[in-house]
Structures are given as C-alpha cells and as structure tokens.
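just leaving the lab so this will be short. what follows is a protein written twice so to speak, once as letters and once as structure tokens for the fold. can you read through it and tell me how you think this chain folds. thanks a lot i owe you, the record is right below.

___
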Amino acid sequence: MNLESARPRRLAAALAALALAAAALFALAACSSPSDGSDTPANSGNGKDKTLTVAMELAYPPFETKDDAGEPSGVSVDFMRDFGDAYGYDVVIENTAFDGLIPMVQTGKADCLMSSITITDARKESVDFSDPYAQAQLAILANAQSGIGSIDDLNQAGKKVAVKTGSTGDVYATKNLTNAEIVRLADESACVTEVVQGKADGFLYDQLTIYRNNQKNPDTTEAVFIPFQDPESWGIAVAKGNDELLGQLNEFIAQSKENGEFDRLTEKYLSSEKAAFDELGFKWFFEFE
C-alpha cells in the first residue's frame, strides 16, 4: 500500500469518528434533565417556567402605579411579584384601562387582574374572585364652598356628583343619589379637578383617595368621611373556572395575612396614610378582624 495515499484516508476516518462522538455527547446532554427535575430550559435560569399575565390600571398610587422610570410599581405590583416567586410564575403586568380589566381576563389576554377592584355580584357574573385581600369604604371629596357635610346633602336637586366610570362610586351614586346630577369621568384625577374647580359638588371614591386629594387641595376641598355604606372587599379576579390559579391565590392571600406580607407592603408604600387612618379611627385596608 502506498503510505502517502493512505494518510488522507486515515485522517478522514479519524475526523468522522470524532464528529460521531461529539454528536453522541450532545444528544446525551440534550436528553438529560436538569438537577431540579424540570424538563424546560427556562427553569435552569430563574426557576420560573410559567408566565402569569396580570391586568392592572396603573393609575391608582400607591396600589397600582409607575415608578420614575415608567415601570409598574406599587402594593399590587409587589404582591403579584411575590406571588409569582412563591408559585414559579414569571409575572408580566399589562397596564389596562379600568373598563377593560374584566374583558382582558374574559378573553384570555390576562390570567388575572389585581387593580383595587371591589367584589360585586354583578362582576361575579363575568369572573371568579379570590377571597378578599383588602377592604375600603367610600367617602366624599366635597368642594369647600358646596356646603356638603353628608351623603344626604349630595342627594339634592342641583347638586353635581363626579364619579369614575364603572367604579363602585358610580354604582352607588346611580342607585342612591337619584336627585343629583351624576358626572361620569374616565379617571380619578379628572373627578378631583371637577371638585377643585367647583364644577362638581362632590366626588365619591374610597377613603384613602379622598384623604390624599384633600391633603393636596386643602383650600378648595373638604373630606367627608361619615360612613354611608358597608365596607367594600377587594379581590383578585380570574377567568370563570380557573380553579387552580384561584386556589393558589387564596392560599397566598391567607398566608400573607399571617406572615406579615401586608404589613411589609404598608410600611413600604403607605406608612403615613396608615398613621392618619389610625388617628382618624378608620379601619385599615388589610384589617379583617
């Protein structure tokens, strides 16, 4: 045999053998499971292989808002991210107009919604709600010159009541303030402006919102905190029949009431408001006993 002619054939055979060995090693690695038992590459990174899309209206600080960089921030954002950490979800916040929140869940564009939304019988016809995680009461932001001192003062001919469209303030006013003119607006700030400028006599919303806006506008507004309805319960909504996610949410809410999660969120975002509520004798959002 010609040694010179045999060398190229031996080299080619050696290279082919190396290629086969490399392919075998690659296949073995691809078939092996990660040490945590997951069969998805996502888990080898941050331990989360499921995406949870949460609808929120980021227009209600400090519960749902944006930070200076324009990123989602607030009580609800932290709560859902903590929930995601506990159950292996990568949480994605979808900023959504208030009247689009429930449709987002109904159409599957969001897995759930957490946006300081009150549990009502009408809403329960469209979505399933978690156990309550917070409670609030309605109050009145009145124009300082309106003479409004109670809900009955607002239910008079010639009085104008500003409400956020679709809110429980809207529902209450529609049902109970039949003598007044109801002005429905798209967001909280527009309602406050109506009162500050004297275009509306009062604005119905939760106690915290009324307190904060009265503090911002002490010369033009008065806060009326006299209770005129039972406390409202806030819940997290999921699509009808999504019992697995609902069960996880209820479990996490129960744990959060016991392990200090809500106390931590209060200290981070609402410490001054909690002190004011204590001084005024109001029941705090996260007190259920």
The first helix runs from residue 3 to 31. The chain has a mean pLDDT of 87. The chain is about 40% helix and 20% strand. The first strand starts at residue 50 and ends at 56.
